[in-house]
Amino acid sequence: MVARATIKHCQAIGDDVSAFTRQELDISNGEQVFEVFAREKPDAVINCAAYTNVDGAETNQDLCFAANAVGVENLALASKKYESAFVTISTDYVFDGAKEEFYTQRDTPNPQSVYGKSKLEGEIRARNAYARSIIVRSGWIFGDDGTNFLSVMHELLADRKQIKAIYDAYGTPTFAEDLATRLRELAELDMPCIFHVTNSGSGASYEEFARKVCEIKGFDKNLLDSVSNNTLKRPAPRPKNSRLACLFSQKFGLSPLPNWEKALEVFLKVKRQK
Question: Any idea which residues carry the catalytic annotation?
């Protein structure tokens, strides 16, 4: 989802883009990574590859760490050799969720899931391998080609399917197209740092997000089954609150991304036109 949005944006502004599926490039294979860099010699690298099955990671730790930690390190090392700007995506799940306010870069990560631990390990390896690394923490991403709950919720509601909407877990929704724009800006800025990138606004619970979808599309809000996070009994723990705020973006001249509600309207209006 994020990779396709990033490819589309970069091509639209005239970049020469080389993009690879995981069948074409296994980033956990260092030899493959260096072969691709030797051929492409990129000015900048935006790593959108990740193992994102949060529950699956609990029983597939090796696969998860191969993509989210080893793969990130390989890309960082190759970027260093070829002097490429390097941007890699991390997650809000590096935090434990105990804080009631927004998490900033001043907060100490304390991931509770295998997925969160693997992404934090990727951050550490990237910085250790290449001081020029740019870490982008984001979360609650929705957009075209997305298979996660936020991206397909409108389709389920359109089919009049009852959905469980969690009322006591909070995050900062992020439109993939807006994230892609910021990833490209950060690659050009080339400022080694950890950035928190989300759409602006006060954040939302899953239920609040779902109600906004219903409001925009005119769906029946009675299709929403309001539930507590604890009742779902999922294999991997999730942070109760993973809302992100960035301390540095505006200091570097980066404007806030659009409010998540406006971004959601853009996403859903495009869906209506299709």
Answer: 115
